[in-house]
Amino acid sequence: MKGQDIKDAGLKVTLPRLQILEFFEKNPGKHFSADDLFTQIRKSNNEIGLATIYRVLNQFESAGLLVKHQFDNALAIYELDTGEHHDHMVDVDSGEVKEFYNQELEELQVKLVRSYGYELIDHNMVLYVKKIK
Amino acid sequence: MKGQDIKDAGLKVTLPRLQILEFFEKNPGKHFSADDLFTQIRKSNNEIGLATIYRVLNQFESAGLLVKHQFDNALAIYELDTGEHHDHMVDVDSGEVKEFYNQELEELQVKLVRSYGYELIDHNMVLYVKKIK
DNA sequence: GTGGGTGCAAATAATTTGCACGGTA
DNA sequence: TACCGTGCAAATTATTTGCACCCAC
After folding, report:
1. Of A100, A116, B126, B132, which one is least surrounded by beta carbons within 10 A?
2. For A10 and C21, how far is CA from C1' in angstroms?
3. Residue B88: which of A123, A99, A92 has the closest Cα?
4. What is the pLDDT of residues A20-37, one digit of tens each?
5. Structure letter (DSSP) for residue B79
6. Model pLDDT, residue A87
């Protein structure tokens, strides 16, 4: 039951929180901005406020339920945290965001950083791509 | 002579443009935000306006004189375009930005993307690191 | 001299915050 | 019932734009 995740995060189970979490679960592997959620949830004649969405997204991110991404200088987008690390490809024609994971790439980064005398804490990699016709 | 770059970009050679370009040339390999430049150039008792800096940075970026980066959701930063592609490491403790280039990493990305049926147009890679003590 | 360039202030855009009211535990 | 959560509007932050004056060519 989805309310449990919210409770586990130390948050009260309220309608806006349920609606936001449900929306992500109904659209697995997809990414949404605060405004996307605002528009979509309002469509289902619900009186949610944009400020609430921003607040809840931050809380869910802190709780580890969602992951936040900021590509370019576009709107921040969120996705369900599946626990599996991955990076993103953005199709420059369609704007579509695709996830990928490549072990070799991950290991190479760790090795590279270490050769400079650092340890890798985190990384942010976005590949901008175009379909080959 | 530095005014030439500005002229080549189809822009008039004005004091603010010279000051901004000179500032980057005096600090090679460093990255600055619009606000950094504003503060620094004003210190040398010059009456530059912040809006002018934003405008000039955009013009210089379009002209290929500068490269713009947007890490995290922090201020946009600019650096001189040396013509050589590189990526960035950010030291999470000091905030210092270091450039690096790794052929293997570059090639791996091209190969990876191609295996998904795409061609690589551009990429954005930032490694967040910590010094090993 | 003319059209582009500048500084200032006001406008935007994304996000955050203050506040009075409402709902969860 | 106590307090957290909500919606709305106002505040913030980074950046852009309108406008009257100024200067490079």
Report:
1. B132
2. 23
3. A123
4. 999 999 999 899 999 999
5. E
6. 95
